[in-house]
Amino acid sequence: VANASHELRTPLTSIRGFAETLVDGALAEPETSARVLAAILRQTKRLQRLAEDLASLARAESSEEPLPAATIALAAVARHVTPALGPFAGERGVRLRIEAPRRIVRAEANAEAIEQVLTNLVENAIKHEKPRGAVVIALSAALRIARSEVRDRGRGIAPEHHQRIFERFYRVDEGRSRTEATTAGTGLGLAIVKHLVQRMDGKVYAESRVGRGTTFVVELPRAPA
Ligand code: ADP
């Protein structure tokens, strides 16, 4: 709660400051007003993301009980995720690709949760991928595991952060993510991912080389053939 209130305070302080600027006379200057209102809008969107992510995290953490599971074809879920994030990827000139083996990979899991997990991972990957690059969702199966990997070729994550990035509000590059209100994350995406995956009896971890890129691996129980 202390962290959450701290996170709320930053955009609220900005919005208050901008509103005061308007009240104190900037309203009379159309150009300044337009700039200040755009800044208010950016900060408001940030607050909205925070509220949404807090709600998702609360739902994910509300219980340790397994999520209702069914047999899910991973490629079908992946094909839902990519069009939804298409515009976001397009803005950054990043292509999205799904790589799946001929044999359908099926998990015994919760479709809605997998969709949220892949959405969060792909969104992160798009943010970190270099312009005109590609983000890949690669599916594969092992004996008892249905695996989804989300790969980017961005700046990577140093080994000392690999565990901590799954903590609530943890960000590797604190300063940067705070100031860029338009793209700044909430620091909650991976905490949501980890909880949902655990409630599907799965595992999630990052493999990365600094400067070369990152792969997030999600392992779920494979559905019996
Ligand atoms: P955020 O909302 O900040 O993205 P997340 O919980 O999704 O929060 O991620 C936590 C941190 O992990 C991010 O702030 C970022 O520093 C790092 N991170 C996540 N995904 C990637 C990635 N694909 N490449 C590099 N760093 C990443």
Biggest sheet: strands, sense, closure?
Answer: 5 strands, mixed
- Secondary structure class reads alpha+beta
Please mark out the parts with pLDDT under 50 across 5 or more consecutive residues, or reply none: none
Q: What fraction strand?
A: 15-25%
Bound molecules: adenosine-5'-diphosphate
Rg over CA atoms, rounded to whole Å, is 19 Å
Average pLDDT taken over every residue: 93
Order of helices and strands: HHEHEEHEEHHEE
- End-to-end Cα distance: 44 Å
* Total beta-strand segments: 7
Gross geometry: elongated
Please give the structural blueprint.
Layout: H1 2-23, H2 30-61, E1 70-73, H3 74-91, E2 95-99, E3 106-109, H4 111-128, E4 134-141, E5 145-152, H5 174-179, H6 189-198, E6 203-209, E7 213-221
Parallel strand pairs: 2-4
Antiparallel strand pairs: 1-3, 4-5, 5-7, 6-7
Helix pairs in contact: 1-2, 2-6, 3-4, 4-6
Bound molecules: adenosine-5'-diphosphate.
Residues 124-125, 128, 152, 154, 157, 165, 170-173, 177, 185-191, 214 line the site of adenosine-5'-diphosphate.
